[in-house]
Write a structure and sequence with these properties.
Radius of gyration: 18 Å
Helix content: 25-40%
Oligomer: single chain
Shape: globular
CATH architecture of the domain at 1-91: 4-Layer Sandwich
Distance between the termini: 50 Å
CATH topology of the domain at 1-91: Metallo-beta-lactamase, Chain A
Structural class: alpha/beta
Largest sheet: 6 strands, mixed
Strand order of the largest sheet: 1-2-3-4-5-6
CATH class of the domain at 1-91: Alpha Beta
Number of helices: 9
């Protein structure tokens, strides 16, 4: 019987997910901020680590790299313009990551905003996007500008609707609560709130999401809509001239939420 490639979450810290891409006896890990839960997972499932993929340099995404490399001397992929522990394969837009033991090839997408060098890995119906696009949210702007983040999100918004989104944090319920302050009459968002609350009540992950669901419910992908524009203008008591102004306003509102 042929083995299927699976992507599964390893919880870490308080709300991180380290994604394991698994095929047969081999596995790669994405954004291993902590080595210990990864090592336990690999041992329990008798898996051989074959690669580490990083989306950006923050310690909660890279802090486990060196400890994993001490036991598994594997390639480390990550953004070329950031300092990634153990990096062996620096990546830029349109580079490819070929993982033959996993039966997987991924394309690199540059996504500045959360950090200046942030990247994502995209394959058929798979998006590993770190801290750029969250379920019903987006990452904070620690290094980039609102214009950069909006451009990055717009890159992702045009991917096929069925593309599964594997982001790195379980922020979904808080993101939905914020979205409802701006888009309270959105039936898709109201339905999503019910579905995701049920998952979390059973301690199940809300991820992966998908592009279609995000286009219907995520305020940061809906800045062109009149309902989001009007809501942001109401909150600020001022007119907003364009999509970037709406995005900037909504991101600032989320920062204070």
């Amino acid at each position: 019987m042929l083995c299927e490639t699976r992507i599964l979450p390893i919880p870490a810290f308080t709300d991180n997910y380290i994604w394991v891409i698994q095929h047969g006896k081999y596995a790669a890990v994405v954004d291993p901020g902590d080595a210990e839960p990864v090592l336990r997972y690999l041992a329990h499932h008798q898996l051989q680590l074959c690669a580490i993929l990083n989306t950006h340099h923050h310690a909660d995404h890279t802090g486990g790299n060196l400890a994993l490399l001490a036991q598994y001397p594997v390639p480390v992929y990550g953004p070329a313009s950031e300092s990634i522990p153990g990096l062996t394969h620096p990546l830029r837009e349109n580079d490819s990551v070929n993982l033959p033991t996993l039966g997987l090839e991924l394309k690199v997408i540059d996504l500045p905003g959360h950090t200046l060098g942030h990247i994502a890995y995209y394959g058929t119906d798979i998006l590993l996007c770190g801290d750029t696009l969250f379920a019903c949210g987006c990452g904070r702007l620690f290094e980039g500008t609102p214009a950069q983040m909006l451009a990055s999100l717009n890159k992702l918004a045009v991917l096929p609707a069925q593309t599964a989104i594997y982001c790195a944090h379980e922020y979904t319920l808080a993101n939905i609560a914020f979205a409802l302050t701006l888009d309270a009459d959105n039936p898709d968002l109201l339905q999503r709130a019910r579905v995701e609350q049920t998952k979390r009540s059973k301690n199940l992950p809300t991820l992966p999401s998908n592009i279609g669901l995000e286009l219907a419910t995520n305020p940061f992908l809906r800045c062109r809509t009149q309902v989001l524009k009007s809501a942001a203008e109401h909150c600020l008591n001022q007119l907003l001239p364009d999509e970037l102004a709406v995005f900037t306003a909504i991101r600032n509102l989320k920062n204070k939420f």
